[in-house]
Queue: 2 jobs
Job 1
Amino acid sequence: MTSLDKDSSNTLLEVKNLKVHFPIYGGIIKKQVGTVYAVDGINFEIKAGETLGLVGESGCGKSTTARAVARLYDSTEGQIIFNGQDITHVRGQVLLEARKNMQMVFQDPYASLDPRMTAGQIIAEPLNIFRRRGLITLSRQEIKERVEELMEKVGLSRQYRNRYPHEFSGGQRQRIGVARALSLYPRLILTDEPVSALDVSIQSQILNLLTDLQEEFNLSYLFIAHDLAVVEHISERIAVMYLGRIVESSHVTELYKSPLHPYTEALLSAVPIPDPKVEKTRRRIILTGDVPSPDVLRPGCVFAGRCPRVLPKCRESLPVYKMMDSHHGVACFLYD
Ligand SMILES: Nc1ncnc2c1ncn2[C@@H]1O[C@H](COP(=O)(O)OP(=O)(O)O)[C@@H](O)[C@H]1O
Ligand SMILES: [Mg+2]
């Protein structure tokens, strides 16, 4: 599979066969004793102005994917093509140029915001870094104005610019994180569980904010979440990840209506559905146990160990990801 969708006219990000393996070192002489196969050959793309939801339980490799795309981690294999350019191994100014157009928002806004910096300084930081490197030509006054404008765009009064992170609520802190990510007017924002640490009532406010900003700035999002309920309303397409691989992907309505992979069905089982007609027809799968550790390469399907519909061949060979129609793909022997 090279793409999740046939129309690749305005593709902003294309990830091809991405692998991120971490060596495990042990013993006194720090010899490599193993490998964590955190991301093991994934493909996806995001178009301009589109949101791709990346979903899977904790430990599936979602954060590693985002960090590799943002070039915070080195890729072991594969390609990251952003804005028409292969950025997998670029460095220096070329990497900075790419970073300007691709920013991250993290899960825990308290941990990711420097407690010694004011909100204004935090939001201005990317601007100041890029200014020092000669990549943007804003004056100090223009930076100050942009920070104030960004604060208001994300729903924070500009009067708060001299406050420190601990003086804000969790939702407000995430708004600061969003303003910082927006400061360079990027084209793509990688959001790693941006609402998971927030109260449910605050979650929808942040999701609405992200949707409004998307419209205003024609942003693309890679939106990471561990449950399907959160991504439903914000994503056009969803990719379901398990143990380093994408097991299914489709348009959001299609994926919710007719999930194919038993893992997707299991994730959907956990999402309450208001429509009793849909609720009745839905197959219930309750997953037990956790995602296994990705430090062993298993010969079969990544989900075989927990799959309620497992077949003998699922433990022997890896099902290839294939397209069932123009946009719905799945890697599962049930659909051979
Ligand atoms: N820097 C690292 N070194 C070694 N293993 C890592 C590192 N980062 C993540 N992992 C492992 O890779 C797997 C995927 O992690 P992660 O990408 O954080 O998953 P998720 O974000 O889906 O919860 C986990 O087993 C995790 O322990
Ligand atoms: Mg994570």
Job 2
Amino acid sequence: MFELNVEKLLIELETDQISISQYTKNHELSLNKDITLDEIRKGMFKSLEVMRDSTSKGMNEPINSVSGLTGSDSYKYTEYIKSGKSICGDVVSFAMAMALSCSEVNASMNRIVACPTAGSCGIVPAAILSTAKKYNKTDDEIIDALFTAGGIGLIIGAKASLSGAEGGCQAECGSAAAMGAAAIVELMGGTPKMAFHAAAIALKNILGLVCDPVAGLVEIPCIKRNASGTVNAITCADLALSGVESYIPFGEVVDAMYDIGKNMSVELRETALGGLAVTPTGIALKKKVLNKN
Ligand code: SF4
């Protein structure tokens, strides 16, 4: 059983001197006695390849959504980066372009890895791959970082929720940011304690975020929330790596997120009956999509 008490889990990791990724891999092995570590890693490598494709496609060519509502932002932003005008540094600017690309690939009904969900699919890959690119990390190191992200997602999913319909966007983009933040910490050589602090800070930053997709489509505001969620992950990892800690421990932040989600009205949990979905523009865009079909 995966230890869901984060305080106990941290003691176990520190006592055994293992990383979150190692613990997560051990857990996977314990679930299926017929599978080998090599097979598990190969499975994650396949996901990594999909992540690489989906995070780069929109940077190289304009991608439009099936609904016609959104698209081409990753391409537009990549051209802007190339012009040298971006005010963000390399890691953050490319991470945002990657996250936009992945979300646009999702909205165009092409292949992504739902990590933890399709709506938040850009955050974990963009956070990890942009950092890995900057610091020349190997595929093996990236795969381990993905297992770290998986471990964090497993805790949130078991203790709370990863679903916008259940917990609002905080449960999707917030969880993805927490997963990405912890993964970067491990990728950069930080400790499990630092990784949990990074995850806690990232999730705290987005508590209360509602799920209010225009026309019920995973496009507005989802695509840009992937860019901001990625920045959240990177900045929180950086804070934690510097020694900054979350005053509220990760496990308690997850509990708080779940409580907040349960207190959200149904209008703000993926029903498209509240928030941005019912603004005058949101309603007009919905009509446009309906008339198109
Ligand atoms: S707004 Fe809702 S559908 Fe969109 S990414 Fe957030 S949780 Fe998912």
